[in-house]
Design a protein that fits this description.
Shape of chain A: globular
Bound molecules: guanosine-5'-triphosphate, magnesium ion
GO molecular function (chain A): GTP binding; GTPase activity; metal ion binding
Structural class of chain A: alpha/beta
Strand order of the largest sheet of chain A: 2-3-1-4-5-6
Binding site for Mg(2+) (chain A): 30, 47
Helix content of chain B: 40-55%
Number of strands of chain A: 6
Largest interface: A-B, 42 and 51 residues
Largest sheet of chain A: 6 strands, mixed
Binding site for GTP (chain A): 23-30, 69, 125-128
InterPro entries (chain A): Arl2 (IPR045873), ARL2/3 (IPR044612), P-loop_NTPase (IPR027417), Small_GTP-bd (IPR005225), Small_GTPase_ARF/SAR (IPR006689)
Distance between the termini of chain A: 12 Å
Number of helices of chain A: 6
Structural class of chain B: alpha/beta
Largest sheet of chain B: 11 strands, parallel
Radius of gyration of chain B: 34 Å
Strand content of chain A: 15-25%
Order of helices and strands of chain A: HEHEEHEHEHEH
Shape of chain B: flat
Oligomer: heterodimer
Distance between the termini of chain B: 99 Å
Strand content of chain B: 25-35%
Pfam families (chain A): Arf
Chain lengths: 184, 325
């Protein structure tokens, strides 16, 4: 049996994925995570450090890491890169002031060697707000089409209403499983 | 006697079956373990073999064993080989222990670095040899990149110009109320010596570059950002408060989660004590529990030690608290 077949079998048995959720502070990362888990989202504090949740979805075990995005925490992001299958980049679509900052941080991340194999899902969050940019506008401002190093997708969503969250996660799971569970 | 004579063999049989099952299980475990170890060893062997090959290619390049005209293709081949190795490694991380992961990563990193160094050293030669076409190609690509940055910067400018709120004022008293601010993203910026009252419930509030002002607001649905402010009094109700790069400010707070400060000093906090006609309805409309106010628990992101409290914020003594009308 070749190594690739072995690897495929191993991962298939576990069906486990490691997802890393990053983005600027206030993007809504923790709110997305709690919404997924059916927890209360009205009393969430800015994240000092990180949260980790294991979610079961479509027979997969998703280990989701939600790391705080405040400036002083960004230098710690690197500690969470190891073995990441999927990177979820969360954007506050209504925060027009910081979109360039957001773009810079994202493109910097994509140069990280340890995230080289990860699939990228961009959540254009807070679509429920009247002032939110559409996901197409976010795609253009963040210059996503220039990304050639990673599989990527952008989905407009709202952590408050829950809309399109599943759609994004399902795409992510499909892309990752096509990559790591079907290596031949 | 008869009964036990019959029972004994049955018990023996059962025990025998159990033993057999256990042996089988152990064998399977062992096989699994063996097979895991085999996979790991296989990976390590392959990885070592491939990186050795790359190293030898690199050293051929380094000691000038590659003819000038072949250098570019040699470099791109090595580059590809390293990428393949990286992919192989990434796909295998889940069977490796942390030690092997680190070691392999380091090795890949060293390969990449040596290639980069060689590229820098050999690049001028390469440019000489392939002046016309290649250089041009590179240039057009660069121009395009600059273009794209420009357009997204321009876009960003337009977006921020459409800000809704109050800016560039000195020594003024301004009141905004009701529907004009309700659930809106309100920005207050570049203000000095002003008093601002927001009678209503903004969606988000951005306060930046504000000096010596008093700012009051009804309940903000989501976050309040405070940036580059000094010598101010803020009377705020909100879900989250995020303060950056500010100093010498007093906050009279109703906050349903925890307030945070970053790169900020000399902050004092007190409970929210503003009221206007309709404040209670505005609170009710958000469904907030009025008793849940965490005004006195501030997280300082520059003070991660948990055993000592942050020196950057304190509670405003009761006799120094002001009242507003
Ligand atoms: N309207 C709206 N508000 C949202 C949405 N998602 C998050 N928010 C609000 O945005 C604010 C920030 O949300 P958080 O989940 O704390 O943001 P975060 O990305 O975890 O921030 P850090 O922990 O500092 O990195 C909160 O006030 C949320 O209620 C959304 O989809 N729609
Ligand atoms: Mg958070």
């Amino acid at each position: 049996m070749g190594l690739l077949t072995v690897l495929k079998k191993l991962k298939q048995k576990e069906k486990e994925m490691r997802l890393l959720m990053l983005g600027l502070d206030n993007a809504g990362k923790t709110t997305i995570l709690k919404r997924f888990n059916g927890e209360d989202i009205d009393t969430i504090s800015p994240t000092l450090g990180f949260n980790i949740k294991t979610l079961e979805h479509r027979g997969f075990k998703l280990n989701v890491w939600d790391v705080g995005g405040q400036k002083s925490l960004r230098s710690y992001w690197r500690n969470y890169f190891e073995c990441t299958d999927g990177l979820i980049w969360v954007v506050d679509s209504a925060d027009k002031r910081r979109l360039l900052d957001c773009k810079k941080e994202l493109h910097q991340l994509l140069e990280e060697e340890r995230l080289a194999g990860a699939t990228l899902l961009v959540f254009a969050n807070k679509q429920d707000l009247p002032g939110a940019l559409s996901f197409e506008e976010i795609r253009d401002v963040l210059d996503l089409t220039s990304i050639k190093t990673h599989h990527w997708q952008i989905v407009g969503c709202s952590a408050v209403t829950g809309s399109h969250l599943l759609e994004g996660i399902d795409w992510l799971i499909d892309d990752i499983s096509a990559r790591i569970f079907a290596l031949d | 006697m008869e009964a036990s004579a019959e029972l004994l063999p049955e018990r023996l049989q059962r025990r025998g079956r159990e033993l057999q099952l256990e042996r089988q299980r152990k064998k399977q475990d062992r096989e699994q373990e063996d097979s895991n170890r085999k996979d790991v060893n296989y990976f390590l062997d392959q990885f070592a073999k491939n990186s050795l090959e790359i190293e030898s290619d690199l050293s051929k390049l380094a000691c000038g064993m590659v003819e000038n005209s072949l250098i570019p293709s040699a470099i791109s081949k090595i580059n590809k080989d390293i990428q393949t190795l990286q992919k192989y490694f990434s796909a295998s991380t889940m069977i490796l222990c942390l030690h092997d992961v680190r070691k392999s990563q380091e090795r890949i990193h060293i390969l990449q670095q040596s290639l980069q160094e060689l590229e820098v050293k050999l690049l001028p030669k390469k440019k000489f040899g392939f002046k016309s076409r290649k250089a041009q190609n590179i240039e057009t690509v660069e121009v395009k990149v600059v273009d794209e940055t420009d357009s997204s910067e321009a876009l960003q400018k337009i977006l921020v110009e459409n800000d809704f709120g109050i800016k560039d004022k000195t020594n003024e008293n301004i009141v905004m109320r009701g529907n004009s601010i309700s659930d809106k993203d309100v920005a207050l910026s570049n203000l000095t010596d002003c008093t601002i009252q927001l009678l209503g419930s903004p969606g988000t509030l951005h306060i930046s570059n504000v000096k010596n002002c008093t700012i009051m607001t009804g309940p903000v649905v989501r976050s309040v950002f405070v940036e580059n402010c000094r010598d101010c009094k803020f009377i705020l109700a909100c879900q989250q408060l995020r303060v950056h790069l500010s100093n010498d400010c007093d906050f009279y707070l109703h906050v349903t989660s925890r307030a945070i400060i970053e790169d900020t000093v000399s902050v004092r906090v007190a409970p929210y004590n503003w009221s206007y006609e309709g404040l209670d309805q505005d609170f009710l409309a958000l469904g907030w529990d009025c008793k849940k106010n965490h005004w006195d628990s501030v997280d300082d992101f520059n003070w991660l030690a948990s055993d000592k409290p942050s020196p950057n914020w304190s509670i405003l003594p009761a006799d120094e608290r002001m009242s507003w009308s």
